[in-house]
Amino acid sequence: MKQETESEIEEILQRVSYCAIPIDWRTTNSFPGVGGRKGVRRGPGLDFLGTAIFKDGDDERHINWVATAQAADEEEIYKTIYRQRKELKAHIFVDISLSMDYGTERNTKRGVAAEVAASIHYALDKTRDKVGCTIYSGDTVIETLPTRSARLNLIPALVNILECERGEGLKFDPLPGNGLDKALSIMPGSRQLVFIISDFLNMSEADWEALGNMAVVHDVVCIYVQDRRERELPEPKGWMKRLYRFGYFLQIKDPSGESKWVWNNAKTRRRWTENWKAHEARISAALADCNCQSLVLSTEEDEGAMNSVLSLFAGHV
């Protein structure tokens, strides 16, 4: 781990905001666990399911003496049935395409992705759930961490999000492209809670199709990360205000990393904002068509971003 990465992770862990993430479906994990979720199978546990007539071979420790005493038939003995506790399995997909390194405010979009990923790990650890993490770009899958305890995966996931290079995955991918489609192909058939953190600028038709297909099986939440400069051009300051009436050339760097000159005046700023609103509406509509819950975060947000993440966790169903 690089020294600067270690310092950045320390700052991220001081900013995390989390609470238990409620779900309205039961995990189908085959094995009992120590998690705080309710499973679909009967078995030893702490969650009361009901009562039934005691039969030969049943565990005598589960006899419900109160129900037996209240039974109309004095010869019948009743037992308590419990539901097994299970842990939920989740997976986080983080986009580190070139556009995710863009940021003109408090942090880059990639840095915001790391903050959100840390909050997700803390939230899942609260209910002792297991989580995996996949780092991808617009071209290929770069790194995948196995599904295990959220506490164990936290630091390795943050290190990979902050340090992974985009070219690493291309060395082993003969057909670059459709990065999200390739990343989602690793998901099993059993239902999981899935988070996708991206700016969705590098999505192909295959990526959108894969996202829609996955949302049919899994519970998908998309975190849409953006930067203020993508939404609006800067307002003139100081002596530049005198030129603003007529306009002036402004050099900016776009999410692709290229610098370009823009004629900045009231008309240009208005068109810039209108174009972004249309682009954002298309992305939001596409996510809605895929039946994905979504949250928009921006790089300039500080406490507000973490409050939004907290609201997302608490209100998720």
Describe the structure.
The protein is α/β, with parallel strands linked by helices. Helix content is 38%, strand content 26%. The chain has two domains: 3-23 and 88-315, Rossmann fold (3-Layer(aba) Sandwich), CATH 3.40.50; 37-86, no CATH class. Strand 6 (193-198), helix 7 and strand 7 form a beta-alpha-beta unit. The protein is elongated, with a radius of gyration of 25 Å.
What fold name goes in the CATH topology slot of the largest domain? Rossmann fold
Give me the CATH superfamily of the largest domain. Answer: von Willebrand factor, type A domain
- Rg measurement, Å: 25 Å
* Overall geometric form: elongated
Fraction of residues in β-strands: 25-35%
The count of β-strands is 10
Distance between the termini: 37 Å
**What are the secondary-structure elements, in order, as H or E?**
HEHEEHEEHHHEHEHHEEHEH
Strand order of the largest sheet: 5-4-3-6-7-10
Mean pLDDT: 84
How many domains make up the 3D coordinates? 2
In helices, the fraction of residues equals: 25-40%
Number of helices: 11
CATH class of the largest domain: Alpha Beta
Unreliable stretches covering 5 or more consecutive residues: 29-37, 39-43
Helix/strand structural class: alpha/beta
Task: Reconstruct the topology from this structure.
Elements: H1 3-15, E1 37-53, H2 65-70, E2 78-86, E3 89-95, H3 109-126, E4 130-136, E5 141-149, H4 150-163, H5 167-170, H6 179-184, E6 193-198, H7 205-217, E7 219-226, H8 228-231, H9 240-244, E8 248-253, E9 259-264, H10 266-289, E10 293-298, H11 303-315
Parallel strand pairs: 3-4, 3-6, 6-7, 7-10
Antiparallel strand pairs: 1-2, 4-5, 8-9
Helix pairs in contact: 3-4
